[in-house]
Amino acid sequence: MYDVIIAGAGPAGASAAYFLGRAGRKILVLEKEKLPRYKACGGGVSLRFLQSQFPFPFDEIIEDRVCSMSYIFNNRTVTIPCKDGGLVMVMRAHLDSYILSQAAVEVKENSPVRKVIENSDCVRVETSQGEVFEAHYMIGADGANSVVAHTIGKEKGRDAFPAIEAEVTAPPEVLARFAGNPTFIFKQIQWGYLWVFPKADHLSVGIAAVNPGRGVLQATLNRVMNSYGISLENVSLRGHLVPYSPVNTRISTARILLAGDAAGLVDPLSGEGIRPAILSGRFAAEAILAGQPEKYGPKVKRKIGYEHVLSLYAAKIFYRLPGVCLRLGAPNPFTTRAIMEVMAGSSGSFNVMLLAILSLPVYLSVETLAALAGVLGGPVRREKVRQVVYYGG
Questions:
Q1: E strand or H helix at 118, and its extent?
Q2: d(CA 162, CA 171)
Q3: What DSSP character marks residue 289?
Q4: Would you tell me which CATH number, out of the four given (3.30.70.20, 3.30.9.10, 3.90.650.10, 3.40.50.620), belongs to the domain 160-242?
């Protein structure tokens, strides 16, 4: 009999394991693959956020540090400096395993959960190998196609959009172009976007869209990446679902709590899932440690769910008016600053769009002043004005 069985060793499951193990509880983590295992994910995360959640450093798993962010649309590239260096790039295989390695818990690899039975006094879990375990509580962190979620009646894939990602070895000049500069590419596919994220020795590239036609994601990804000198020939493409759920979706029972992708906690606008996964894993652990699992669902809705509802509305506005939003928002450094705050857990994606709108008069005024300074003092003076106002010097 365990105190808690955790299905899945992703950021949600690993985080829950860490906080429960630190409290001295007897924990079993069931992971369906052998660790470290690859997980399709862009891998952008705020170092400031990680440091706010865990008392140990993450330097050894950082692949790249972000110096700027670029947005490409209508054959136009806008690059905004990121001065604080707080956004870093990681490989999910390394992040998940690293967090789990800090946890004082028992881990069983190659043990996918096959069946879950919730009783009044415990949860009974059976793996595909036929092993049976029992615990007082269970945390389902087993991804978008969660077996545990199905147990409590949450429909698989009801609110999700497909994505494809690949890890690509690129020529040195291409790696240098994207080094420290994650890039988002818009207006190449309806209701979606592409990305190029730099890693230590390769690029993570991908595409996501709502309701694409058959084969559209693959064809668009190949076409667009080829235009930037990134060949996907003989490269494995990995597809996965990006799950987001409405705020009223059931994510817990008396003894089972869903976290991360299993709970559908990916941000609908940005597609960012690491931060909400870690937060939900921690919330689940705290609810169990407090003996109040019934408070877990309301807390997730309050801290994550309502923010995602606003993000969903923002996404609908953005993808209905992408040209207007990109022309007014992408060049605005205040927008990128808001994105950084989202990654750091200090804000929500809806606030990115809100800040882009509210800061527009300031942005236009600064650009007018900078243009005037450029006329009088040349391009150096123009950039000086922009640097002082946007970045403090």
A1: strand 113-118
A2: 28
A3: H
A4: 3.30.9.10
On whether the CB atoms of residues 257 and 284 are closer than 8 A, the answer is yes
pTM score, whole prediction: 0.88
- 133 pLDDT tier (thresholds 50, 70, 90): very high
Joined tokens for residue 304: 């994550």
Amino acid sitting at position 182: P
Instruction: Provide the terminal-to-terminal Cα distance of the chain, rounded to the nearest Å.
Output: 60
Q: Name the β-bridge partners of 244.
A: 265
> DSSP letters of 312-381?
HHHHHHHHHSHHHHHHHHTT-HHHHHHHHHHHTTSS-HHHHHHHHHHTHHHHHHHHHHHHHHHHHHHHHH
Q: Is 252 helix (H, G, I), strand (E, B) or coil?
A: strand
CATH architecture, range 2-64+86-157+243-311: 3-Layer(bba) Sandwich (3.50)
Q: Which residues pair with 265 in a beta bridge?
A: 244
pLDDT tens track for 93-127:
999 999 999 999 999 999 999 999 999 999 999 99
Summarised one tens digit per residue, pLDDT across range 245-303 is 877 788 999 999 999 999 999 988 878 899 999 999 999 999 999 999 999 999 999 99
∠295-98-129 over CA atoms, to 5°? 75
